[in-house]
Each structure stands twice: as structure tokens, then as C-alpha cells.
Amino acid sequence: MVKKHQIGMSRRSFLKAGALATGALAVPSVAKGMGQVQGPSSPNRIDREVISCCQFCQVRCTTLVQVKDDKVVNVYGNPANTWTKGGMCPKGQSLVELTNSPHRLLYPLKREGDVWKRISYAESLDIVANRIVKVKEEFPDDYAHRVALFAPLWESHESEIVAQMALRMAGFPEICSSGDTCIGNSATALRICLGSAVSSTTLNEVLNTQTLVLWGANIAETYPPYIRWIDRARKKGVKVIYVDPRRTPTSNHSDTHVMARPGTDGALILGLIRILIHENLYDRDYIARYVKGFKELAASAESYTPEAVSRITWVPKEKMIDLARMLAQSKQTIIWMGGSLSRFTNAIQTVRAIVALQALTANLSGPGKGIMNMQGGKPGGLEMLEEKYSAKDLAAALGYRKVLYGMEQKRVKVLLLNSSYRRYPDANRVRKGISNVDFVVYRGFFMDEEAQLAHLIIPGTMVFESSGSQYGAQRQVVWRNRAVSAPGETVEDWRFYADLGRRINPGTFPTFDSPEDIFELVRKNAPTWTGLTLERLKKDPTGISWPCPAEGHPGTLGTLYPDNRFLTADRKVELNTPALGPIEWTEPEGSPYGDSEEAKAFPLIFTQGKVVQHWQHTYTQWSAYMAQFSEGNYVQVNPRTVQSLGLKEGDWVYLETELGKIKARLHLSEMILPGVVWTPSYPGGGSPIKANTGVSINTIIPGNWDKVSAQYNGFGCRLTKA
Ligand code: SF4
After folding, report:
1. Which of 37, 52, 56 to mutate to test the pocket of ligand 1 (most atoms within 8 A of CB)?
2. Domain end call among 358, 374, 390
3. Which atom of ligand 1 is the closest one to the Cα of 56?
4. Is the CB of 223 under 6 A from ligand 1?
5. Of 19, 116, 138, 295, whose CB neighbour count within 10 A is largest?
6. Which among 343, 374, 405 is the end of a domain?
7. 610: pLDDT confidence band, cut at 50, 70 and 90?
């Protein structure tokens, strides 16, 4: 086993060691790839154009990839895509450079002392499989939680399915999903209240509504191709209300902006509900027919008077009353929830309250009505294959937090690190935990901070080097075709886990020769996907939205719940789940406005968020193209917030939480509420591109959780002069 001091070699020597060992291929210059990203290249300068899609976010922009000499030379958005009309954001465009990056890992590497030794893919597979089998042999009665996988996988739905099958069929249930650090709380609340975790409607319905509420959804910056839908809606007279503690680029596309203190959205919604009830502005008939738990909701909302809510949220009482009346008058309303809503310790209650608000105004089903969430529309994971493949103990997973504890206790013996550990809060603790694991396998692309923790690196293919299906926020499934060959001995995620599955489940694991094989297995087991034939998907520039229950069915846009038939046990909106108690609001954990005396030492509210150029703290940091948008660590605050500190624009400050502090550039702006600090989530180390580096914000974010996913916002922090 590699000793701790050997892992701690300098980044420079580490990168050098990696580059030498990988024998990186000669590639086209970065500048060449970057200069051609804005539109199609002339057809006579390319060999072919391949239909593909971006893997970064749930907009799932479909793209056309231009190839010359088996190299990607350009990518542009597919103009035939209904949702994006050829739009893309810089993240998707950076894939040309990232695919051709001279920094890529191209061959499996095994750590030997202080150096990396290049090995073959077959040997690397043997090593991982043997390690996993050995865990079972050493701990025959207690092996289940000693092997873990940090998902998400990079590549496709097929990769996720086959990785789950490989590990769970072998009796290892610990697959830490992306929901832990993403919008698991929102998805859970929607599933409990309505029966499905995905959006209850699709984007086209914003053209059929009267009022669109963007609740914490900074669409212009996080999902740029969607902003044209909002502009089209406004041209048709739709009123757009934007709720966010900051003015952002999305403010320019909204009619009304409500600035509430971060983490108080649930109180604001309960305040609106109380006004609707007190002013008799809710739909009694709808409630009687379709909703369970109204009485309990009304009792719970009673203490959220306009005065109390105004004190909590900092939203003026009059504005709140106007908002409630506006929503009551609107015959059709869609609420579009941003990912930020899920990132508080009170998130599940907040999303339940949003469902309740839409129920009171009869806005959960029908044209121009519903709740949108940036949850990708997949039909489920391995559950649907459970019987067929005897997947063991699906419910037995302890979850990420116990896996972390298991690593700290040195119980976890093998970790398949298939994503960035820096996405977790208290990232230094996670890093330390991982350093306790006997054997860490990294599936990534670059010698980044994750690679530094590994004993074995098996590099993955990038998005244009593999095919597979991906699912998006409009419940659509799209198919991505491979555009170029996999370089070196990189290997697709689906192939790696299919190969591993066969080794650790001898005689029982099915043979998959292609992602198409895996897709077909899913399609045949998911009734809502029956009509999604590969033949159709491969031709469709937009993807097909499920439910698509039969071949020839066009797919389903708009409401997921026709005629108010919800997917809960008794088909009603469930607002009174005993396990969750009444819908109520509590201060986020660590808030200086709560009861904790310690928290008062950190009197400002911490918030962080995504910016257009970065994704999940990881590999967009390896793009020089992205560097033009990057600034390292910085904070945005209102000038009044730092008045007493004598700080001015551009000063260096320390941003400090109970976990520690980072140095950041100060930006003063009237666009953010006083008392609130905002910082972008992207910086991290590892990349040689200096403008993209910094200290990961998650190193100072305390590890607090709602029931399902982690808190990233709403706790206390302070600023001091650096
Ligand atoms: S919006 Fe950007 S990150 Fe999201 S799918 Fe499109 S190009 Fe990719």
C-alpha cells in the first residue's frame, strides 16, 4: 500500500510524473479548438459531423461535433433542438479543448512508491477486481459496506445502471449518488408530495401560463439556453417574478424581484399561504377533491403573520401581501425551482410548502401550471431490474455520511472514486477520510486533486469518445453518438463497470457489448420508456420526453399528472406525511439568527452558487478557454455589510466560517442584500491553469444536511481584512 507521505508529493512533481507516465499524445493546439467554437466550420474542412450532446447539465444541449482526422475540431449547438435552438453555454464549448487537452490522462497508472507506472487496461482491471474479491474473502460476514463508489459517473445513464448492477449484484450497496450534493432534497419532497421527483411540467408550458415564478432559479447564468423561453413568455404577457437574495443576469428578464434572506423561503411561502387562507383566496373545491393535509397546513401557517414573516425574511410586508394577491389572481402559475432551494437544512419543508402553495391556487396540473425542477428525468435506477438480476440489499446502503464515517474508522477497504470528492461539504474531512482507504481507484481525466489520493488511475473517455443516453430536465432522453476514437487506453465508464461486473460476479453478470445493449435492458423494464426506441432516439435532435409508453407514441410534454391524478399511493397531493411532521419553517443550521450562541460569532449569511463557466468543482478547471471567465476566490457583498471594516472594492479579505477561512477578493455591489455574502462555488486546486484555481469553497462549508442532501447556504460567516 502507498504510504501517506508518498501521496503528499508536490503537485508539480505529481503532474510531471503523470505526464511522463501517460506519454501524452500530440494534440491540436488549445487555441485551434477554441477559435472555432461559435458555429459550424466549413464542410470542406472537416471529415464528418456527428450528432452528440453535452454531458454537463440537465439542459442537455444536443450538439453537432465536427471531426477531422479522428480529432474533434469544433462543436456547436444543434439548431434543430426544440429546447435550445442551437444554444450552448461556455461549458459545453470547452469540451473541444478538454477533449484535445495535452493534460489528459491516457493510460492506466499504478502508484509504485513515489512514481506512477503505466500499466495496461487489462492489468488495471485485474487489480481492481482482485481487490474487491479479496474484501469478500477477508470479511466473509461483514463485507457489504467495505467497498464504496462515489458517483456520479461521467458518461451516460447506461454507465450508472451498469455500475450499480456490478456492485450491488456482488453485495456492495454503497453507491453515493450525486443527489447527496445536488437537489436530492427537492426531488425527495416532490416525490413525497406528488409521487414523482421530476418536474410536473415541461418548459413549453411557460408560454401557456400567466405567471412564472423563478424561485431561486438564476436561469440566465446557470442554464443560458433556456432564457429565450422566458423572453418569449414575457412577450406573450406572462409576468415573471424572480425570488433571489441577489440581482443577477436573470433579473433583467423578470418583472418583479423579491429579495428574501437566504434560507427563509419556507417562511415566506407559509406567509403567502396564510394570506391566501385568511383572505379566502384559495380554491376550496380543488383542495377538497385533490389534497390531503389542508387542515394541518392551515394550522401550521397560522403563526406566519405578515409581520412575523417580514421580520424573518426581510421582505416588506406590503410586498408579500401584493405577491399573495397576485398569485391568487393568476389563473395559471408555474413555479420553477432553482437548485439553491435544495441546499439548505430546511429544504424538504420549503419544497413541500411550494407544493402546498401551488395546491391552494389549483396550479399543479394542466396547461400553464406546475412545478419545474432541474432534476433529470430518469425512470429510476436499478430498482426496476431488481428481480431480474437479484440485486441484493438495495435498501441496505448506509449512505454517504456513514461511508465517510466508515472511511474514518478505516472500515472501507476499496473506494471507486468516480467523481470529485470536492463536491462534498467539509471537503478536507472527506479528503482525510479517503486517505484512510486501503485502495482508491480514480476514474477521471486529469491529474487533479482526486488523482492525488488514488492508488490506481483508470482514465475515462470524454463525452465525444463514447455513446449512450442521457436524460434532461424536460424528461427528455437523448442519444449521444461517439464522434472520435478513445485516445490511448482510456475506457468508457459503461465498459469499465461491465468488465468489472463480470469479474466480481462470475457466471451471473450479463454480457453487455455496447451501451445499446444496456439501454435496451432499461427500456424493456421501464414502462414509461417503452416507446423510446434506439432508432427513434438516434435521429431525434431534441430527445423524446417520457412517458412514452408505446412504440410510435410521440412522448409527453406538459403535465405529468393529467386530470390531477398524482402518483402518490391514493393519487392525491400529500401534504401531511406523518414522518415529516407539519409543513413548517426552521432557521438553517448554523444561522446567526437562530438560537445558537456560537453561531452569532459569524453574523453574516453565507451563500454560494454556480457561475456559467464551471461545473461541479472539477474538470472545466482544466480549460484555458474557461480561464477568461474565471477570477479565483471572490466574495460579493453590499457596501453596507463592510462599512464598519473600512474595506473597499478590490481589497483582499478572509471569508471565515466555523471550519476555517479562505482568502478572497472583495467585490462591493448594491445587487446583494446587506448582511449576505455570496461566493462562486467553482474554485479548487489541481489545474495548471492558474486563473481557474483557488481554494475549494467546500473546505469551509460545514457538513450539515437536510434528510437527503447537504447544506451549502444559509449558515453564518464573517469577513475580516486580509
Ligand atoms: S447549458 Fe451548457 S452545460 Fe448545460 S447542457 Fe448546455 S452546454 Fe452543457
Report:
1. 56
2. 374
3. 3
4. yes
5. 116
6. 374
7. confident
DSSP state letter for 710: B
- Could you identify the atom of ligand 1 that is nearest to the CA of residue 93? 7
Other beta carbons within 10 angstroms of residue 550's beta carbon come to 9
The CATH number given to whatever domain includes residue 281 is 3.40.228.10
Least confident segment among 143-147, 162-166, 183-187, 628-632: 628-632
Element (H, E) at 124: helix 121-138
Reduced 3-state DSSP string for 311-350: HHHCCCHHHHHHHHHHHHHCCCEEEEECHHHHCCCCHHHH
Q: Is 197 in the pocket of ligand 1 (CB under 6 A)?
A: no
Pocket of ligand 1 contains residue 92 by CB under 6 Å: yes
Question: Which atom of ligand 1 approaches the CA of 615 most closely?
Answer: 3
Supply the range of the domain harboring residue 356: 184-374
d(CA 701, CA 683): 13
Does residue 88's CB lie within 6 angstroms of at least one atom of ligand 1?
Answer: yes
Is 571 among the domain residues? no
Per-residue pLDDT at 180: 83
Is residue 406 one of the residues assigned to a domain? no
260 occurs within a structural domain? yes
Q: How many domains does the chain have?
A: 2
Residue 223: pLDDT band by 50, 70, 90 thresholds?
Answer: very high
Atom number of ligand 1 nearest to Cα 57:
4
Paired strand residues for 116: 111
Is 20 contained in some domain?
no
Here the CATH number for the domain that contains residue 651 is 2.40.40.20
Query: Residue 594 and residue 264: Cα distance in Å, rounded?
Result: 12
pLDDT digits (tens, 9 = 90+) for 492-524: 999 999 999 999 999 999 999 999 999 999 898
The confidence band for 15, taking pLDDT boundaries of 50, 70 and 90, is very low
Closest ligand 1 atom, residue 63 Cα: 7
Which is more confidently placed, 612 or 176? 176
Is the C-beta atom of 61 inside 6 A of ligand 1?
Answer: yes
Report how far ligand 1's centroid is from the alpha carbon of 476 (Å): 15
Kindly state if the Cβ of 57 falls inside 6 Å of ligand 1. Answer: yes
Please tell me the pTM assigned to this model. Answer: 0.92
Mean pLDDT of 570-588: 95
671 compared with 25, residue with greater pLDDT: 671
Strand partners, 414: 147, 439
